[in-house]
Batch of 2 targets.
Target 1
Amino acid sequence: MTSIDQLDLAGKRVFIRVDFNVPLKGGAVSDDSRIRASLPTIRHAIAAGAKVILASHLGRPKGQAKPEFSLAPAAARLSELLGTPVALAPDCIGAAVEAQVGALEPGQVLLLENLRFHPGEEKNSEDFASALARLADVYINDAFGTAHRAHASTTGMVAHVAESAAGFLLQKEVDYLGKVLRSPKRPLLAILGGAKVSDKAKVVDHLIDNVDGILIGGAMAYTFLRAQGHATGASLVEEDMLDSARAALAKAEAKGIRLLLPVDHVVADGPKAEQATGTVVGDIPAGQMGLDIGPQTVALFRAEIDAAKMIFWNGPVGLFEKAPFRAGTMAIAAALAASSAVTIVGGGDSVAALSQSGQADKISHISTGGGASLEFLEGSVLPGILALEA
């Protein structure tokens, strides 16, 4: 891919697809990490004398203009971060927006209103893509979090713009995640958690061909443990994924890849419990649900982390949102922060847990794309990246 710093942007209308799909609370941005992640690209365009047009989606308005999904809070927060006013356009296409773009001076920034207020965005409508392209001389994609979607603003409009390139964030994401698959430091360790094997079955299968070890925690571990014949009590198990889990375990064994599962569990009556019943080693009694990894598993996983030279983590290893079941995930975050390895963390819940741990600044790379990072590591071709390589 061409990078933004390889283009002459002076005086040009530079359309930057950013990912400002940020959480809101009380009409304000409650977590601005995605906006901050886009700043290097935006600042570069400003410094280069570009007329900067930013575009993003927010939430799922389903093709309708809904005030609660307006990007106004993002425009306000970006103005604060840049120290310069960022105007919000009334829409993302149309004569009024084209006039507003035409009035931009070099170095000024305009944020378009939510792309998904138009059904043509997610449908990758040719007409909508062409209308967006009329705003731009140069197209920059810096939204890795949507690179796995073939939408008008991520793929469709590229063919209608004279020049296109990757922003610094997209380039960084591809570089770091690409190293996991193509040129990793060894030993390479993957840590996978979260609720469902079905969300990560393809990733597990693909990673077995690339990594030296896999640690599996979270609720998805109980499908693997059941596949091994262990009693899992009331823990979440995807019955229809047992064969997939058995196949992954067999493949890992055949290839000599360490695939480690929890050996002890913090249990309770269910996810609504306000305190743990206790910690059990091995099989989980009937009526009890595994909600976090236990101390023996923490020690086992920490030893693997300490020995690794590159680590990818996606998914918490327990119900970290509740204090009694947080220790395991916080221990993983602390171990990664203390590690000398190249550390990459992806996925909304993992990033939230990392932020909660206060260790985020000690991680080599925090991916802004949960689904996109998983699809990338599955070996899938991401449409938003492919469009820039064409």
Target 2
Amino acid sequence: MNLSRARFGPLIAALVAVALAGCASGPFKKQALPPVSLEPPPGVAAPAHTIPQTSASPLPPSYADVDGRQLEAALSRNRQESQVMQDEIAALRDQLASTSSQLAQARSAGLPPGADKPPRVGNDGGVSATPVVMQSAMTQLKLPELQPRFDGAVIRIDIPADRLFDGGTANLLPEGAAVLTQVSAELERVYPGHFIGIEGHLDTEPLQNSSWASPHQLTAARAAAVFDFLTTRTSMHESQLFLVAHGANHPLVSNATAAGRARNRRVELVVYPDRAAVDIAAK
């Protein structure tokens, strides 16, 4: 037994070596695999997990760390700027409204925009003038010693009775005739053919040494004297004039002072927007 091992031992070892060498180079030898490429073939989208991830967009700044006083100051500035803008818008609206109103008045008065003087209010056969036209034309009256005033839709010209009449009478003074001549000429120039009321007024003082029984009678007589003068000595037509006797019922100011009583003694020429349908030029 020992002899057999000694004899065949080297042979067995050689066979084992040959067998091992054959397995290393034979068909059962472990082959190295080629590296796997993660690149997709042309025309094929890459898997989502293989696409490099870009960094996320930065988050909006947080105001948690901002000083509250800074936020309040910024808010206050925004409010102030907003208020300034609103004020400017309001001012522009006011300017637009004012301009529109002026344009409408100019159109109503027959004026082109920017015209300096209103036109004369002519006679057109009984047609009424608008209040805007009446007031605009009033500026054309040249009566330096009198103060025409616009009252609703009419023009009132107050003439002191002391300039027209002698004392407590209805006798027209030469100065009064000159005043009425001037006033009538201006009214015919600016308001030709308009209806004109002749209104007599007195103060509250009792009549002294007068032939008139009441203030109404005296104011009626004075209005009639003005009517007679205007229809006989001027170009005014009787159909455009009418008389009103107010007595002391409508004072302009208080009768407590001499100056106030003097102002309340007056004759008012009241120009109405209506025109008389008469041929004034034929007179």
